[in-house]
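Q: How would the structure tokens look for this protein?
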Amino acid sequence: MHLSILTDRMPLLARIARITLIGMALWHLYVAFSGTPGPYVMRGLHVALALLLIFLTTTARGFTTDRPAWYDLGLAAAGFFAALYPALNLDYIFSRFIYVDPLTPIDLIAAIVLTLLVLEGTRRVLGPVLPITALCFLAYGFLFTSTLPSVIMEQLMMTTEGIFGIPIAVSATYMVLFIIFGSFVERMGVGQLFMDFAVAITGRQAGGPAKVACVTSGLFGSVSGSAVANVMTTGTFSIPLMKRMGFKPAFAGAVEAVASTGGQIMPPVMGAAAFVMAEYLGVGYLTVAAYALAPAVLFYVALFAAVHFEAKRRGIGSVPREDQVPLGKVLRDRGHLFLPLAVIIGALLMGYSAPFSALCGIMSVIPCTLLRSTTRHYVTLDNILIALENGARNVLSIAAACACAGIVVGVIDITGLGLTFSNMVISAAQDTLLLALLLSMVAGIILGMGMPTTPAYIVQVSLLVPALVKLGVQVEAAHLFVFYFAILSAITPPVAMAVYAANTLSRAKIVEASIAAVKLGATGFIVPYMFVYEPTILMQGEAHRIVLVLLQATVGVIFLAAALQRYFFGRLNAWQAPALLAAALFLIYPDWRMTLTGFVIAAVVLAGQYFKPSTLATETGE
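A: Here is the predicted structure in token form.
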């Protein structure tokens, strides 16, 4: 059997890096099966392998390489051993009195080396935003507090409250396995299944191509957990198809960007930050998925409705007949590839841990792929090794982000900055919850600009969540609130990373595409306020109350989509669009008087459309 990793002509160091990546993936699979070692060993080796591989595979300019420079070899070795320093000195770590016994010169050197290399490794794989953020927090701790620099370095290196804290623990135990799972299902043809499935169920409807993008990106995004990666994967098919069918390039790119971003809040897998949330809340991952389910459905209902109204307004029809695929054929040929997802969900429902459930899902991928001849050809040893390698390679940026976020969290904890910042937010909001939420939203979007969701969420948990909880917000709602805005920063100008990625495919004007993305994702900016004021949306409370609230919310987000796209049964005129927008906003707050007002306004608008249809039902261009 052909093994490219052994036979391909490549530099020796590149081959060593590939073998190490596969070994890293296999080690995490073994640990998930046999049991997790102590925190310093598990987290230390995870960071050590990540730093080693980052410096072996990425240049100082952030490009992938198979010929690392001589100094990168030194940095790789230094990062590897610095990260393992606590694990190699466990007796010393456990016998010393934290913050009392002074650091030895070797302790201090190891801490400084590890901190600097985590910052540099993160810069190489994620860009400068997160490392600069961490440096700002370090500068604050060193220069503007009474905390000794040696104590800060001790916090970061010698405890499980800094670099080796909760973020890297989640990366080493949860995220890595789900990322490997995503890599396996991608190599086994699930991407094609998602695309064909979406075409089969939505392709015959008005605006079919855009609806295909919504479904495909939602499915793929819930597995991949990366908005930008999702755009570049599914957008290569959906964006050209949308443009060919008559959607404007800006709208086509915006649909893909928003749908891909929403994948991070859509169960069952969601984005990597959801696992961190489960750890912070001290609940099972399935509980977090239950909290997120209804808001995610509302997000996609609004997006789907917006696409439908835009298509009707412009007279755009279904996917071309030659591109349509019968649902029965899709399910017969590839439907069995849904089974690994079902295995994960089933294991979680049976009470198994998220890492073990992910392991079960990974172990089921190959047997499920072998069930039919239409997918059996994907199962080769080469493909399996590539899946392991790609999975570990995708882990590197997550591990670097979590380690770097650990620096920020460590400084916040040791200096008391979290409490200070919370008091500042409460003071600025003057004990008014709505103002505090608005400030938190702005701060969350700014913190998340250009930063991956996971570290953006982690920083906000330390700085913003305590203030919201003090003002009476439920803990679960507070975490989900900042989680949403950490995600939505990917479509929020001026640093809308998912929109920039989509624009490389749509070739639209960035300002126009950003405005379209904000309009399409408007529900995402409103839903967090809805579940803060009405936690029933998080599936908490009596069943009949949950049903009523969700029905009201669903109607509200559809009205919102119609108002922003200026179409319902027909084109909305100058007064109908703002009136329907007002009706949608009235339906947000759980008060019967506001709800009644919203429905009355909506009824007036709809009656006006019914008895006097708009003169222009569709548009061919603007």
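DSSP finds 31 helices and no strands in the chain.

The two ends are 57 Å apart (CA to CA).

Upvote if useful.
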